[in-house]
C-alpha cells in the first residue's frame, strides 16, 4: 500500500487519544511550554513526493534528532577509525545520560546517540570545523531546502543553564583522554544543535539520504556513501531510541531517531523517510503518540525492515 | 546478485585466513576439542533452494542459536504479555552472563537472548510442556526436515557441570519471583537446547520462517504470524549477538543469532536464510570468520535490511 | 561511671518510645511474629559481673550476630591467609546481600559479615569440621555457659525456604572458584547458625573474649590470641553493621555486630561486653531502639573506643 | 610501653627495606619528583612531648590528610545536619574517586574523605567563609604552632591542570542539587588544601585535639567538643584510608587519615597523635612503609583502640 494524505490523517486521528497520557519534557521551561496538542506526520518519498498531515509545517525543537545529523557530518569529515576509536557502536542498555557505564568503559561512550557519544561527536566537529555551529545550520538548510531554519536561542541558552550533568560527562571523558577541546564551547555547540527548529516536512526531507543510498532526494547530491548509509541506519536501528530501541524495533521495525521535543524520524530504506511530532513522551523519553503513529503506519503500508 | 555455490566458496576462501586469529570456546572440553579448521556456509532461499559450501552438512553444537528456536516455541505457546512481563526487549549493553544488570533491574532479564532471558524462556517452556526437551527436538527436526538431529549428551552433561553461574542467575530471578520451576531441571533443559547438534543446512532450513513471514519454507506450515516474525527479527537485530549486536548490524545489516559453537544464522527478510560456521570466536563471543563471511555476503549480493 | 542495673533500666525506659517507629523483620514468618515490645540489655564485665535489665534472659534469634562467632571459629581452625585469600576485610558500601559488588570483585566477598562473606566462612567450616553445626552449637554453649542454647529449627527451615538469593550468591562464588562444597548443605549450616536462640545475657557472656584480649571471662580459656582479638574488633568496627557501620561508629563508637532479630553486641575493649535486643529495625537493618540504647550507654558511662 | 626516639628509629629501620616496593604518586609531576628515600615519624603526646625520628621536620604535601582538617573546620562552622544532609558517614567500598556510587546515590557522597565528599566540604567552606583558603592556612598554622606553613603553589596549580575527574564529580553533584558555588573556584580551594606543606611534627601537633577530647595540646584551646572528637575519630576509623580502611583497622587499629603524598596521621585517643611519612604507596593509595611503621608502633607500645 502507498502512503496518502488520507492515510496520515487517519493515523493521526487514531493516535490522538493518547494525548494526555504522556508527559511533555519539562527540564527546561522553553520545552515545557510547547502545547501538548501538536500532532504532525510527514512522508518524503524517494520520488520526491511530500505527503503530510496535521502540524507538519510547524517548526519544533528537534533535540536529539540532531545527533543523527551531527554524526553524518562527522562521517563526512573523518575517517571511520577516527570516530569509532572514540565512540562505540553498541546499544547502551542504560538511561541515556548515565555516567556509570561511561566510567566502567573508561570514557568511551557506547554509541553516538547517547549524550556522551553525541558530545564526543560535537568535540570532533569542533576540532575540524572553524565554525561548527554555522556549518551544521547550513547542512540542515541545504538538506531540507528550507533556508529559514534557525537555532532557537532561548532553548540553547536554557539548556546551557541546565548543563551540569552534560558538563560532568564531558569532564569525565576528558579525564579519560577522550575529549580534546574546552568543555563549555563544545557543550554550547552541542546544545545549539539540539535547539535546531525544524518541521516534520523539513526533517523528512533532510534525512532522505538515509532512505536513498546516501543521495539526498532534495538536492540530488551524494551526502554519504551507500555503505555509510547502511551503517547509519544500522546504528539508528540498534541505538537510536535511547533505552527503547528494542521496543521500537519490535513495534515499528524501522531505523529511527527520537528527540525529547517529541519528534521522531524513521526510515524505510529504498522508499521513504517519515517524520512525526507529538510532544508528550513515554517513560523512555520517546514520543508516545509519535511511536504509535509509526507503528500504525508500518502496519498499514506493510513496510518494515524485518 | 543471486547467491551461488561459487559465491559461497569464494567467500569462505576469502575469510579462511582469519582462522588462527580467534579463539575456540574452551569453557567445556566438548567444545574445546572441535577443530578450528571447520568452515561452512549454507543459504536456503524462500524458493526452497539450498546453496552450500564447505562443511555445511556437518552437525555442530548450535549453542545460543537455540535461544531463537526456544523463543519461537514460547511465542507459539504463550500470549505476548505472559512472555514480555517476565523478560524485556532491550539490548543489554553488558556481557551476556552478567548479573549486575539483572540485580539492578529486579530480576527481569533485558531480553530473551542473554542467558538470564533464555533461562526464563526455558522456565516458561517447562511450565507448559510435559516434555519440553523432546518437544524442542521435534520442533528442530520438523523445521529442518532432518530427522537425525540429536542432543549432544556429552555437551549437555559438560555444561551442567559448569553451570554455577547460570544457577546463580536462575536463583537470583527466583529471589525476585521471576522463576517458577525447580532450578536444576530447567537448567538441564536449557543446556540440552544449547547442545542441539545441527548443520548449517539444518539451521538455514529451520529458521526459514523468519525470512518468509512466519511460514516454514521446508514444511509450508505457518509457524508464527507475520507480525511475530517481524518481532522476532527485530529482537534478533537488536539483541541477537550478545554485546556485538551494534557492530553486527553496522557490518552485516541482517537480523542474526550467534552461538559460542561458532555458528551464526542471519535473515534476509523476504528472500533467504543464511547459516555460517567457523568455531573461532571474536572477543564478543561471535564467530570471527563467520561474521566476516556474512559481511562479505551482504556486500556481494547487495542485501541488508538497511 | 560504672554501669548498674538502674542505668540499664533508665536507658531502656528512655528508648522505649522508639518502639513503633521501626519495623520487625518479616521476610520469614518465624521472625515476623516476635513481639515488638521486647526490650533488653545485658552487660558482662571483664570481672565476671552480669548486669541486666528488661527481657535479658529471654532467648531470641541471633541471626547475623552468629557471623562473628563463625568467623572466630574459622580463625581458630585456619591460617590467616586461608581465610583472607577468600574474603576481604573492607566495608562493602552496599546493601548486605547485593550481588553487584560480588560480581565486580570476581566472587571475593568484601568482608566476612555480609552474607556472601559469611557463606564463605560457612564453606570453610564445612570443609574442616565433620559436624560443623554441632560444633558451633557447642562453641556457643561453652562460651556462654548456657547448655540450653538450641537452634530454632522452625527459623532455620523457614530461612531455607527463602534462600534463593543466598543460593544465587553461593553459586556465583562457585562460578568464580570461591566455594568448595555443595551449596545446599552449606546454606543449611549457615541458616542454622543464624537460627541460634540466645538471650542478651548469653550473648554478652559468649563474646566476652573480644573485650578481654581473647580470653573468655566465662571459661577462663584463651579462645583467640590478643592480636586476633584486635583484628576481630577492627572488622566489627568497620564492617559489623551492614551499611550502617559508619553511623554506628559515629554514634556509639564501639565494635559491634547486629542481627535482623533485633539483637546487637558491642565491645568495650578491656572492660566489658554489652548485648541489647529490640526487634524493630531501622532502614539499615539494625535494631532501632537497640542502637539508641548503646549510644546512650556510651554517653552515660563515658566509654567509646574513640 | 612508652614511645621513645629510639623506638621510632628502630621502627623506621625495620620498615626501610619496604622502600622500592611501592610506587610514588606520579599523576602530577610535582609529586612524582619527591625522593622515595624520605622516611619520618613523629609522636606528639597529650603531655606536649614531641618524639621524632628521620625526616620528621621536613615539610611535604599532605594531600588528603587535609580533608580531616577541612571537615573539622566545617564542623566548627556548621550545624551537624547542614553537613550530614549533604554527605554520608559510611565507607564507600569503592575507589576513592569513582563516580558510579555518586550517580547511584543521587549525588550524595558516601563520606567526607572520598574526593566527592571533600569537595562538598570545600563547597560548604566556600559558602560561609570570605577567604576560605586563608582561613584554612591560619587554622593549620595555629594548630601546629608553625607559622611557616605554606601552600605549595606548584602542586596546587599542577592539580588544577589535572582536575578533569574532580570537575566531573563537582558537576555531577551540581546536577543533583548538591553543590552551591561555582565549580572552578571551589576546586581551586580544594586543591590548595591538598597542597598544604607540613612536616610530621607539624601534623602530629595539628591533630592533637583528636587525641585530647577536642582540646589542642599545642594551643590549649577547645577546637571541637568531646562528642565531635569522638565522631571525627569514628569517621577516620571507618573511612579515613580510602578503600583500605578495614585493612588499616585490622593491622594498625587506630583512627587515621592518609594522603597520596605518603603521609598518614593516626590517633591514640587519650594519649597521643602520630604522623608518618614515606612517599611510596601501596595499591590502595596509602603509604606502604608508613602503614607498616604504624602497625609496628601499635604492636610495640601495645596500643590500639580495639
UniProtKB/TrEMBL annotation, chains A, B, C, D:
Which UniProt key words apply to this protein?
Answer: Acetylation, Hydrolase
GO molecular function of the protein, one example? Answer: glutaminase activity
Give start-end ranges for the coiled-coil region(s).
Answer: none
Q: Which domain of life is it from?
A: Bacteria
Name the catalysed reactions.
L-glutamine + H2O = L-glutamate + NH4(+)
The membrane-spanning stretches of this chain are none
A GO term (biological process) for this protein? L-glutamine catabolic process
Gene3D superfamilies found in the cross-reference section: DD-peptidase/beta-lactamase superfamily (3.40.710.10)
Provide the E.C. number(s) assigned to this enzyme.
Answer: 3.5.1.2
Give one Pfam hit by family name: Glutaminase
Judged by the first EC level, this protein's enzyme class is hydrolase
Q: Where does substrate bind?
A: 64, 115, 159, 166, 190, 242, 260
Give the family, as the similarity comment puts it: Belongs to the glutaminase family.
Database matches in HAMAP family: Glutaminase
* Assembly and interaction partners: Homotetramer.
What name does UniProt use for this protein?
Answer: Glutaminase
Amino acid at each position: 500500500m502507498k502512503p496518502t494524505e488520507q492515510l496520515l490523517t487517519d493515523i493521526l486521528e487514531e493516535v490522538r487519544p493518547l494525548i494526555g497520557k504522556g508527559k511533555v519534557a519539562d527540564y527546561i521551561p522553553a520545552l515545557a511550554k510547547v502545547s501538548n496538542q501538536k500532532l504532525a506526520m510527514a512522508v518524503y518519498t524517494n520520488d520526491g513526493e511530500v505527503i503530510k498531515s496535521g502540524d507538519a509545517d510547524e517548526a519544533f525543537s528537534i533535540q536529539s534528532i540532531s545527533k543523527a545529523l551531527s554524526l553524518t557530518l562527522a562521517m563526512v569529515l573523518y575517517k571511520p577509525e577516527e570516530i569509532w576509536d572514540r565512540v562505540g557502536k553498541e546499544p547502551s542498555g542504560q538511561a541515556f545520560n548515565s555516567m556509570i557505564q561511561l566510567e566502567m568503559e573508561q570514557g568511551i561512550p557506547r554509541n553516538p546517540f547517547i549524550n556522551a557519544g553525541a558530545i564526543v561527536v560535537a568535540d570532533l566537529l569542533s576540532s575540524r570545523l572553524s565554525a561548527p555551529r554555522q556549518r551544521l545550520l547550513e547542512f540542515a538548510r541545504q538538506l531540507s531546502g528550507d533556508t529559514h531554519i534557525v537555532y532557537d536561542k532561548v532553548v540553547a541558552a536554557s539548556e546551557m543553564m541546565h548543563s551540569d550533568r552534560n558538563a560532568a560527562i564531558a569532564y569525565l571523558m576528558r579525564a579519560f583522554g577522550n575529549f580534546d577541546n574546552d568543555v563549555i564551547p563544545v557543550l554550547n555547540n552541542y546544545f545549539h544543535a539540539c535547539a535546531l527548529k525544524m518541521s516534520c516536512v523539513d526533517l523528512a526531507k533532510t534525512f532522505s539520504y538515509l532512505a536513498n543510498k546516501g543521495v539526498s532526494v532534495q538536492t540530488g547530491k551524494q551526502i554519504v556513501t551507500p555503505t555509510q548509509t547502511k551503517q547509519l541506519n544500522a546504528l539508528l536501528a540498534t541505538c537510536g531510541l535511547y533505552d527503547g530501541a528494542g521496543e521500537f524495533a519490535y513495534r515499528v521495525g524501522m531505523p529511527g531517531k527520537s528527540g525529547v521535543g517529541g519528534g521522531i524520524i524513521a526510515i524505510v530504506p529504498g522508499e521513504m523517510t517519515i517524520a512525526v511530532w507529538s510532544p508528550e513522551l513515554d517513560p523512555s523519553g520517546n514520543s508516545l503518540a509519535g511511536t504509535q503513529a509509526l507503528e500504525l503506519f508500518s502496519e498499514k503500508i506493510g513496510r518494515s525492515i524485518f
